[in-house]
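Q: I have two molecules that I believe assemble together. Could you output structure tokens for the complex as a whole instead of separate predictions?
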Amino acid sequence: MRLATWNVNSLKVRLTHLLDWLGRERPDLVCLQETKTEDANFPAPEIERAGYHALFSGQKLYNGVAILARVAPSDAVTVLPGFADEQKRVLAATVDGVRVVCVYVPNGESVESDKYRYKLAWLAALRHWLGQELQRHPQLALLGDYNIAPEERDVHDPRLWQGRVLFSEPERAAFRALLDLGLKDSFRLFEQPDRSFSWWDYRMNAFRRNLGLRIDHILVSDGLANRARASRIDKAMRALERPSDHAPVITELV
DNA sequence: ATGGCAGGAAGCTCCTGA
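A: Yes, here they are, computed for all two components at once.
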């Protein structure tokens, strides 16, 4: 079973890239973030023609998440229980016996921002809910744009990013708190190239210079970790014309 | 160098992202 996550930064703009990529990689399951697409405008026919069922929870302008799966998903949830939120950032469903949770974690803007406090509160609510989900679903995967680089090796210049949003200690602590629930960072279960990142700023030729962060992750429960066989970042998608600023992350399970 | 680049909605500029 091949699991993937990709922040597409507008599904409308990235649809051709997505369909080409689905045909080439044939993932069994894909979590999308930043679809920026209202449900009424979701390109369900094109996705279905590519061989995928689609669940989606979107809104105009910002946010928006979707789950694409070759097997029909069931038991969908579109809200973070106990956390009133207008923003469409969560989608969970069961796919082929695996509980899949797709998240678009708030960016936070800066550590001084109200959005940063919202980010930390949101992450606390996610952790609380996931604790319950794991009790019910030992085979669980949490995929998405976490907007957190967990370790120094996930940041092109840790000294530059020290204390800043996406790499601040409270955010990294929130990430570790997710691991403490019994989740593993599937990318780090395998040997990886140095300076592996999943996001590069559009500006300053950041991609060409590989000035990136690894902020998109696939965490798997202990019940799934022993099925993991490989994980990688599909950096080539960031090199295309008119790319998303994020590259897809793919984890293979037996 | 708080710059730069991209998407969306609006409408010739602004907000947000990371």
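A: One point stands out. The longest strand of chain A covers residues 98-104.
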